[in-house]
Amino acid sequence: MVIGCPGSGKSTFSRALYQKTGIPLFHLDMMYWNPDRTTVEKAVFRERLADVIQKDEWIIDGNYGSTIELRLQACDTVIFLDYSPDVCLDGIMKRRGKVRSDMPWTEKEDEEDEQFIEFVKSFDSQSRPMIVELLDRYPQKEVFIFKDREEADRFLDQL
């Protein structure tokens, strides 16, 4: 599973990992969102996720805090892109206006979601501690924590 703050490049990393390994890739955003920016029912999302984690192999990118532990229980390896908020905010700005295979819509270049930006800015203090605590609960999992894009790129290059 590939996790990290929005804008950290989870989907980009996951696509590169898929290219290197051939392990099937699934994006939580594609399971959760409809093209009209509405969400699927919670039960539908959970069912889609359950169908994927029952497979022999998978790469799943995305956070979705309510499902991290479920995925953590089912995975053998965790990649945590633990980048600074500035790096993640820059990543969000660079992806605007681009078609993405991990989202069912294209974000508009002039779109500014203040609540989303605040979530990214507070990720280190709000979401990161829960992630670290969960990772500590599963010491048998292989966990890679990357602090910058270059470190993650070196990992991919070595595969």
Quick overview:
With 159 residues, the protein is mainly α. The protein has helices at residues 10-21, 28-32, 42-53, 65-74, 85-95, 114-121, 123-126, 128-137, 149-158, and strands at 2-4, 25-27, 59-61, 77-81, 142-146.
Write the layout of secondary structure elements.
Layout: E1 2-4, H1 10-21, E2 25-27, H2 28-32, H3 42-53, E3 59-61, H4 65-74, E4 77-81, H5 85-95, H6 114-121, H7 123-126, H8 128-137, E5 142-146, H9 149-158
The CATH architecture comes to: 3-Layer(aba) Sandwich
Quaternary organisation: single chain
- Tell me the name of the CATH homologous superfamily: P-loop containing nucleotide triphosphate hydrolases
- Rough outline: globular
Secondary structure: number of strands:
5
Distance between the termini: 16 Å
H-E string: EHEHHEHEHHHHEH
**Helix share bin:** 40-55%
What would the CATH topology be? Rossmann fold
Rounded radius of gyration (Å)? 15 Å
Mean pLDDT: 92
Question: Count of helices?
Answer: 9
Lateral strand order in the biggest sheet = 1-4-5
Tell me, what is the CATH class? Alpha Beta
| Regions with little confidence, pLDDT below 50 for 5+ residues | none
- The fraction of residues assigned to DSSP E strands is 5-15%
The secondary structure category is: mainly alpha
Number of domains: 1
Describe the structure.
The chain has 159 residues and is mainly alpha-helical. The protein has one domain (2-158): Rossmann fold, CATH 3.40.50.300. It is built from nine helices and five strands; from the N terminus they run βαβααβαβααααβα. A three-stranded parallel beta sheet has the order 1-4-5. The protein has a two-stranded parallel ribbon with strand order 2-3. The radius of gyration is 15 Å and the shape is globular.
